[in-house]
Amino acid sequence: RSGNLLPGRNDIYVSATQADSVQTFDATTGLYTGPLVSGFGNSLSQGNTDWGDLPYAIEFGQDGNWYVAHYGASNLRKISPAGLDLGPVLDNSNASVSLIAQFTIGPDGHFYVVDANGGRVVRFQGPSGTTPGAPIGAAPFTFITQTGVEDINFGPDGNLYLVVQTGADREVRRYNSTTGAWLNTVVSDTQIVDMVPGGQSIALISGID
């Protein structure tokens, strides 16, 4: 579902949603090198009846740990380099984020979390914050209001980029990373369609990196 390359090493870490696990691969050969977490979440079993007890986006924190979106728990879980599950990270009692599939860690070290049900992005203090996992700002802690966010990441310009896919819009949008203000549409549905001569009349987009 989501993957990441470990800095300083030749390994790719993949959050395997359908396999309920986090797996590793050699970045040069592409060969499978084994699980980091063989059973993710609370039930620790593949194919359990809890549809939300699954891993989604995965990011490497500046503290040397992995952070994985725990979809149905509406939280992130911290995973040590050895694969030890260190538990949930976010204090979601007041922010009330509901279902997390996508998030990123910003240049400021904080978590930028997509609230799937709430149609928004909420910031939480990152691993190096004074209170890691605490929501940032004032209640209800909404940083960006936007439905249909498929992915989120920071660009080399320091701004925040969202892949948006709703019934009316399929595009990549840029936002100010300090204020959360919308800046511009980087690429539109029509532009994406035009990139593929003879392709379909609408574009389906997902990840950004």
Briefly summarize what is shown.
The chain is mostly beta strands and 209 residues long. It has one helix at 189-194, and strands at residues 2-5, 11-16, 21-26, 32-37, 55-60, 66-70, 75-79, 85-88, 103-105, 111-115, 120-124, 142-145, 149-154, 160-165, 170-175, 182-187.
What does this structure look like?
It is a single chain. It is built from 1 helix and 16 strands. By secondary structure, the protein is mostly beta strands. Strands 1-2-3-4 form a 4-stranded antiparallel β-sheet, with no helix packed on it. A 4-stranded antiparallel β-sheet has the order 5-6-7-8, with no helix packed on it. The longest helix is centred in the C-terminal third of the chain and has 6 residues, at 189-194. 32% of the residues are buried.
How many strand segments? 16
Rg from Cα: 17 Å
Low-confidence stretches are none
Q: Give the assembly state of these chains.
A: single chain
Distance between the termini: 14 Å
User: What share of the residues lie within helices?
Assistant: under 10%
Which structural class do you get from the secondary structure elements? mainly beta
Mean pLDDT: 88
Q: Tell me, what's the shape?
A: globular
